[in-house]
Amino acid sequence: MWPTLIAMTLAASMILVDQTAVPLASPDAIHDLHGSLDEGQWLLTANILPLAAFMVFGGKLGDLLGLRRVFLAGAVIFMGATVMAGIAQDMAWMLSARVVQGIGAACMMPTSVAIVSAVAPEDRRGMALGVLAGGSAFFAALGPVLGGVLTSVDWRLVFLINVPLAAGAILLTLSSCPPLPALAKGRVRDLDFAGMVTLALGAGLLLFGTSQAGDVGFDDPVVIGPILGALLSFGAFAVIELRIEDPLIDFRLFGHDNFLASNISQFLSGAVELGMGFLLPFVLLLVIGVGPVAAGIALIPATVPIILAGPLAGRAFDRIGGRVPLVVGFLVLAASGVALAVGVGDQSAVALIPGLALQGLGLGIVLTVNDPVGLNAVPERDRGRAAGMINTSEQLGGALGISILLAIELGWYRHQLDVKLAERGINPTEQQIADVKNFVLESEQKGLKNVDESATVHSVIGILADAHVAGFRLAFLVAACIALLGAAISFVLVRKEDRVSPHGPTFRRSRWRVWATRREEPQDEPAADAPRLPATPPPNPPR
Fold first, then answer.
1. What is the pLDDT of residues 81-105, one digit of tens each?
2. Which CATH superfamily is domain 2-179+248-417+467-493 in?
3. Neighbours of 30 (CB within 10 A)
4. What angle do CA 305, 308, 312 make, to 5 degrees?
């Protein structure tokens, strides 16, 4: 178990570090690749979007072709795309490489979880999955530190550092992981390609629409149009999944309350994790004013609690189930959002430490417990697909969290900036606006205090900082509300022993499958005097 667990943890950590280290490298990458300010977000989401859209597909491929085989294929794709990202010469090249990286990661992430679940004994599965989730969450939290240090040397190292790590994961898997035969029968050409396309289209339109909201507001047609298109795509996806014999996302699994709760909580925790992870480096660069190296080091307080919380949360799950750890973890995450909202006003790194420590503790608990809560609720044959669904929820939540929290921060920052300038009677010219934009871009690369101020910038530097504080504070409070929602849902749905909800999916096939599942389960004998009813089939049997 242990060599395989190390290999899978290394692979999952590599993918997550790639996501959390990129924000500190993106200003330098955009400058060198002649990109624009609004392309910074897409350096990250170009990787997350295909990862989210294709992850269930990757899990299904693992079920059909063998978990180890699909994992290794994804690792090779990821490693090759990482090399191409590291040597990119323009933004189109870089974004294309990031998309391919996401496709490779989509084959790796669900199969890594399913592989660990397969090789770990039943009584140690919670511990093993806890090590996988806690270890990868720790390295993800360490990503900004690595990103800051490597960016100070050369931003390309942020990508190229993953090449030897991917090679190590491949070699360790080949030498230690058993073959793990396919769990399902079928042909690749019979997979749900229509569902995959509509899911990817819906996710892409949703992210594009929300990413524009920070510039034009949520009521602009450029935002409303893509979001409506996303809703139509998701509707088409649902129709396809309900009609196809072997769907990409099996809605039957959502009849298990713990699996449903695991997906929802993973979506919400992903929104907080990646959304906050994207914003926090810019708090340090634009508000506190330190450089990339110092910004990365300042985020270390978020990593230490994960080391402690992950293993402890895994043991707690094995003893008492997932309900209490998930509720506690989300409440701690909510407290971290409030603490960061309060601390950002002091404009010092020390004031952020309580919020960062609480964030690491909360994420360590939630991300460690989520996987075993969901996977233990489904049959063994469905765990590859289930792992893909859980990870898809996290990545979709993360991508949406980045878009929404960034749009909130930028929208409120610009509103506050306009208000404060109007209060002082300042009407900036086009040239002055351009000077301030260039100053902000350079501050994102070097830190606010390391950039020379022009006369224009010097006159409004306090207003800029105050407006950013207001924007970040609102985004952190929204993240706290998301975490509170996660606590409430976990409290209502999660149980130590999973149950099939009588109020689960209500479409025709699900009613039949839930009924059939219950018919197969052993039933208690009725009392002798109890009336006996004749057994009747469900009203709408399948064709």
1. 999 999 999 988 999 999 999 999 9
2. MFS general substrate transporter like domains (1.20.1250.20)
3. 23
4. 130
